[in-house]
Every structure is written in structure tokens, then in C-alpha cells.
Amino acid sequence: MNDLKQHQLINELKFKAIRSSGAGGQHVNKTSSKIELTFDLEHSLALSEEEKTLLKIKLTSKLTKENVIILFCEETRSQHKNKELAIKRFLHLIKTNLVKPKKRRPTKPSRSSVLKNIEKNKRKSLKKTLRKKPRLD
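C-alpha cells predicted for Peptide chain release factor 1:
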């Protein structure tokens, strides 16, 4: 993903500052350091239709019904650092899920591996037959 595309994606992001949960004393009650990042996948101009469909398939668990990605970040007490972290996570998420997997070419197992498997199964079979009680016919 090139810098221009990253910049376009970042411009399409929407941020919302929320009060962070957890310990922190009086400071946490009056500052909004938690960041909620939202990205509307459906109406994005930075992504092509092909990329959108690929992301919809791969990110089904992270998308809302309206095809919006929502990420939260409340790691630090600084709103700006949380915003940077959220942007980094978002870009990483998009980059990793836009990679198309290589098509698998089916191959035959080699003759030696087939023979090894047969030998291994024979040894296992022998071991298990030796564990049985002897028959008294």
C-alpha cells in the first residue's frame, strides 16, 4: 500500500474521544482519552470495489451491519498517542487483509514419503497387536 493511499484512508477515518474506563483517580473522570476509530468501508473512495469485497470477506467478524470498522484504543493516558496507535492498528489491519493468498498447487507425495508412512503404520500396528492378550486356541 503506497503513501498516497494511506493518506486517503486516514482522511476518511472518523474519531471520537470517550472517557476511558478503569483506574486512574480523579483525572480519568474528567478527560476523554479513549479513542473510537470508525471507517465506513462501503463509502470509501480510497479503496477499489475489488479491495472492498476482499475486505468484506476477510473482516466479517470486525464489520458492523452497515460495513463499518470500529476500533478502540485506550492504552495510554494521552488522547493523541491513542489516536496514533488506533491509526497504526487500522492501517496494519487493512494491509494484512488486502494480501491475496497464493493459490495452492496440489502435489503428489513422494515415493519415499509414501513408503515411510507404510513402514510407520506397520510398526504401529505391530506394537498394538503385541499389547493384546494372547489367544488360547
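Residues 1 and 121 are 49 Å apart (CA to CA).
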